[in-house]
């Protein structure tokens, strides 16, 4: 599961990506590695891991991770292949969610591609290019489906009706994500369509250092614009984040953050938000060899969660022993949790909750 950073040129995308790549920015050792020049695997900051490490004192700790992709800046005409348009659209299509960076700061030394700072216009520029590309995709698909629908093919008629609704919205400059699926057939179809504007999005307002806590007039404009989109808006001073990564010690970084009025780097807030945007959650295994956070989809069952560790765990699943993170933290050990009667035994139908500490029994 990957979240792609998008935006116009010179809005701070690559600086943000580089901030995420620097482990010094975090309060603990959250490493990052590069798969390709523009893809990074970033650990998800989770204070629960620090508490579990204190209680268990394991040999090693393994965080949950999320893939972040730095995508080339988009320009007008990208839907027709202008600039790096084709590369941009190919990269974004492979992502599961979008982190849209908007420039919300004034600085005469950093040239804006359109001459002046206007995050509303910038957002619309990108939205329109992506909507145009999706419109092209929808109309090509409708050409094929229309023929089958005319012959009385029921599946084709369902698909045509859904495509018509999406097309209507795209023509009104509304993204595909605004056309909610009405049933399981449409949920499956939407996934099959691979539309760019159907992907979930969060907005990052890149502000000056003074606006890092409360935002500014540009942030207010963005919030007003996206209030009906059910999308999160994050305020981040990318320049300040870059400065934080240059500081050598944890103490220096904390002083810098306190001076800004922040309790943690904005990049940590962003990583967790991207994790939520991808509809991911975490369960833990906690033993003396290793305390580890495992990434699963929200709604996964216990066998599915077990399969993330090893496919044999899912195939031969018998039961899961489950402790809520809060109980583990409060009682201080697995033994004390058992004494208090708080350890639960769950079967194949159990839906794993975020923060569950789990131990699987299986037989292959």
Structure keywords:
single chain; 364 residues; alpha/beta; seven-stranded mixed β-sheet
In summary, what is this structure?
The protein has 364 residues and is of the alpha/beta class. It has 14 helices and 13 strands.
How are the elements arranged and paired?
Layout: E1 2-6, H1 13-20, E2 32-36, E3 39-43, H2 47-56, E4 60-62, E5 65-70, H3 85-93, E6 97-103, H4 119-150, H5 154-171, H6 184-193, E7 201-206, H7 217-225, E8 233-236, H8 238-246, H9 250-260, H10 266-277, E9 280-286, E10 290-297, H11 302-309, H12 311-315, E11 317-323, H13 325-331, H14 334-339, E12 344-346, E13 357-362
Parallel strand pairs: 1-5, 1-6, 4-10, 6-7, 7-8
Antiparallel strand pairs: 2-3, 3-5, 9-10, 11-12, 11-13
> What general form does the structure show?
flat
- Distance separating the two termini: 29 Å
Give me the strand/helix succession.
EHEEHEEHEHHHEHEHHHEEHHEHHEE
Helix content: 40-55%
Number of helices: 14
Q: Beta-strand level of the residues, as a percent range?
A: 15-25%
Annotation, overall tally of beta strands: 13
- Profile the largest sheet: 7 strands, mixed
Mean pLDDT: 88
Radius of gyration: 23 Å
């Amino acid at each position: 599961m990957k979240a792609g950073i998008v935006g116009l040129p010179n809005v701070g995308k690559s600086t943000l990506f580089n901030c995420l790549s620097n482990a010094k920015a975090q309060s603990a050792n959250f490493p990052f590695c590069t798969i390709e020049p523009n893809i990074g695997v970033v650990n998800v900051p989770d204070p629960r891991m620090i508490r579990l490490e204190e209680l268990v004192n394991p040999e090693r700790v393994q965080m949950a991770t999320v893939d972040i992709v730095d995508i080339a800046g988009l320009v007008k005409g990208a839907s027709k292949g202008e600039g790096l348009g084709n590369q941009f659209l190919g990269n974004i299509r492979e992502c599961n969610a979008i982190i849209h960076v908007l420039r919300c700061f004034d600085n005469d030394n950093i040239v804006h591609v359109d001459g002046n700072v206007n995050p509303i216009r910038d957002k619309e520029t990108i939205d329109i290019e992506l909507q145009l590309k999706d419109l092209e995709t929808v109309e090509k698909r409708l050409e094929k489906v229309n023929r089958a629908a005319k012959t009385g093919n029921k599946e084709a008629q369902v698909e045509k009706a859904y495509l018509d609704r999406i097309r209507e919205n795209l023509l009104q400059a509304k993204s595909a994500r605004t056309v909610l699926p009405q049933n399981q057939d449409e949920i499956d179809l939407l996934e099959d369509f691979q539309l760019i504007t159907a992907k979930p999005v969060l907005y990052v307002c890149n502000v000056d250092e003074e606006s890092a806590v409360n935002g500014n007039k540009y942030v207010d404009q963005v919030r007003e614009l996206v209030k009906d989109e059910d999308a999160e808006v994050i305020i981040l001073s990318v320049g300040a984040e870059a400065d934080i990564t240059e500081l050598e010690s944890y103490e220096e970084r904390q002083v810098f953050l306190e001076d800004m009025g922040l309790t943690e780097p904005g990049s940590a807030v962003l990583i967790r938000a991207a994790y939520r945007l991808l509809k991911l959650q975490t369960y833990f295994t906690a033993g003396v060899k290793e305390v580890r956070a495992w990434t699963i989809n929200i709604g996964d069952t216990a066998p599915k969660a077990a399969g993330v560790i090893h496919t044999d765990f899912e195939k031969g699943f018998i039961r899961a022993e489950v402790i809520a993170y809060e109980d583990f933290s409060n009682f201080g050990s697995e033994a004390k949790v058992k004494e208090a009667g708080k350890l639960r035994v769950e079967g194949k139908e159990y839906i794993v909750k975020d923060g569950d500490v789990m131990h699987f029994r299986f037989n292959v």
